[in-house]
Amino acid sequence: MRDRAVEERPREPGHPPCPLKDARMIRNSLFRSAALAVAVSLSLGAPTAFAADAATATSPATAVQRQAVAQGLYELAYSPKQNAVFVASSGGFGDDAGPAQVLRLNPTTLAVETRIPLERKAFGVVLDDAHNRLYVGNTVDLSVTVVDTAQNKAIGTVQLMEKKTGKDGKAAYTHDLRELVVDSAANRLYVTGHSSQPDVSSVLFVIDTTTLKVINTIPGLGNAKAPGLALDAANKRVYTSNLLADLVVVGTDSNKVEAQYKIAAEQPMNIALDPAGKRLFVTDQGSEMLRGYQAKSSGLVSKHPGQRVLVLDRSNGKELASIPTDAGPLGILLDAPRKRLYVTNREAGTVTAYNSDSYQKVATYAVPTHPNSLALDAKNNVLYVSIKNGEKDAKGSEESVARIQL
């Protein structure tokens, strides 16, 4: 799944916005989110910074095709089983807002093949291809909509939490959503619940995908926004990050926080996990807006400008390497067999590709204005990118999906 100046995300009427957002709000997209294949040869005690490869040429525009498809695009997923791209559309906000929907796109032409109507606005997504299901985060409604990808229709909604009456007498949610991950074999869906209050912990919702019921709400993710989420199904761990510069490890058997580490990333956004090694890749955004939020909400004093991917040892949170990126790194995706790491750089309007062994930059793809989330067709080596509009784009105009032939 995946917020963005952090990504942009919606503001719920009467409810504080998520601090991750585009230039207009303190919340960004994804709601709501996203760690690699070869063992790291670096010493745990010797983190290394890698400069970008100056000889790397920008990739040709012919490698990128782009199509405007709908207002309010957020996360997307590619289904090998359906041979289709599914992208979430909130429809936007305001009088000119379009319908909430999931769009099924042709993976070659990006033409809209089917529009799947939703009752609630769509932001983050995660695909369970084995069971023909797309789980869609309804951030402002604190729920998840279940879409049948074979029948192209919504088949259910999971309400994660009810509104509570605050001191002002108004009912509001105490949390909002960002990322989702699914353990298909174990029939479990995990969703991060951002705390919207400094005295309330962020949580991890655990949903049984056979009954579509919440079976656990795990606290302890930190009294701050918790944007990052990654699943290590083989080792029964879920990794989350928060804006207190913590990496929090939850056991999927114990259903409790089993470890917490201070990390060098001050604004850890999305996480990619190395299934064969011990690494986590974390985008450290470096947003000035977020620095202000962090200083005000938690007193965090910034010591690093961010604008990088941090490589961590997932067993202890120690820094293995720091990879410079373009401005505003957000989404991250690992193609482990090809040893490629892809990053969306929201402010720069680029997607950058790195060798996941050497950490050297190997390509840059221009996809302005604000590239958000990523999905991969591994068989055909094609990358898909959702792209948000900028402040200069016409209000109510459609946002885009890009197809990059790698």
TrEMBL record:
Give residue spans, biased composition: Basic and acidic residues.
1-14
- What InterPro entries does the annotation carry? Host-pathogen_enzymatic-act, N2O_reductase_N, WD40/YVTN_repeat-like_dom_sf
The UniProt entry, under Gene3D superfamilies, shows:
YVTN repeat-like/Quinoprotein amine dehydrogenase
Protein name per the record: YncE family protein
Superkingdom per UniProt = Eukaryota
Show the segment(s) annotated as Disordered.
Answer: 1-21
